[in-house]
């Protein structure tokens, strides 16, 4: 992957797209009151944001991917297997974003001098050694451009799906995220 100003310049040269749709998020039930909070990613980091740097809200392209991303289910030879865990809530999040950068696209990966293997590689071991993962460098450079609201990235758990990494502090005026809940129990939206 490119680094430094080369990475920033390459990111700035790539096209962004507006898109609206539904994405999914799995949260612990105890966080229902703050369903769209991304404070955990600020504190602990994530694949595309280093700890203590900036907030990133991670959403999955489908409900199964959301379960896989947090290891609530795992793929086995015989199919999906549930994993014992605390009570969780699966959220449907309606989104409308103006500037999404598609990192799933092979041509964009080529411009950034990265590939699928690098994008889905384990990042936690690097952080444990005090090293920022390449994906975290990518996320940081995209966030610092201030013009990108979200990254569309390959899922490390299911290569047939993708995730959205939303920079909640970079949302444009016409952009929004809202938890769909016709019962009225969870009323969460950004901005």
Give your account of this protein's structure.
- This protein is an alpha+beta fold and 191 residues long.
- The chain has one domain (4-180): Diphtheria Toxin, domain 1, CATH 3.90.175.
- The protein is globular.
- Helices cover 27% and strands 29% of the residues.
- It has 7 helices and 9 strands; from the N terminus they run αβαβαβββααααββββ.
- Strands 1, 2, 5, 6, 7, 8 and 9 form a 7-stranded mixed beta sheet that branches. It has a two-stranded antiparallel ribbon with strand order 3-4.
- Helix 1 packs across helix 7.
- The two termini are 32 Å apart.
Any key phrases for this structure?
alpha+beta, two-stranded antiparallel sheet, single chain, 7-stranded mixed β-sheet, 191 residues, Diphtheria Toxin, domain 1
What's the SSE blueprint?
Blueprint: H1 4-13, E1 17-28, H2 39-44, E2 57-60, H3 63-69, E3 73-76, E4 79-82, E5 88-102, H4 106-111, H5 116-120, H6 124-128, H7 134-145, E6 150-154, E7 162-166, E8 176-179, E9 189-190
Parallel strand pairs: 5-6
Antiparallel strand pairs: 1-5, 2-7, 3-4, 5-8, 6-7, 8-9
Helix pairs in contact: 1-7
Architecture (CATH level 2) name? Alpha-Beta Complex
Most strands sheet: 7 strands, mixed
As a whole number of angstroms, the C-alpha radius of gyration is: 16 Å
Strand content: 25-35%
């Amino acid at each position: 992957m490119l680094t430094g100003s080369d990475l920033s310049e390459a990111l700035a040269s790539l096209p962004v797209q507006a898109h609206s749709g539904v994405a999914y998020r799995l949260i612990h039930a105890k966080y229902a009151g703050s369903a769209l909070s991304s404070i955990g990613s600020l504190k602990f980091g994530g694949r595309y944001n280093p700890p203590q740097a900036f907030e990133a809200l991670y959403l999955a392209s489908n409900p199964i991917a959301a379960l896989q991303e947090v290891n609530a289910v795992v793929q086995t030879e015989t199919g999906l297997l549930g994993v014992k865990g605390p009570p969780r809530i699966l959220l449907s999040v309606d989104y409308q974003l103006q500037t999404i950068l598609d990192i799933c696209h092979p041509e964009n990966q080529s411009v950034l001098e990265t590939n699928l293997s690098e994008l889905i590689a384990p990042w936690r071991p690097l952080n444990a050694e005090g090293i920022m993962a390449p994906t975290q460098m990518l996320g940081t450079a995209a966030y610092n451009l201030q013009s990108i609201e979200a990254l569309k990235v390959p899922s490390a758990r299911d290569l047939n799906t993708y995730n959205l990494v939303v920079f909640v502090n970079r949302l444009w005026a016409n952009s929004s995220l809202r938890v769909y809940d016709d019962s009225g129990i969870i009323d969460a939206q950004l901005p």
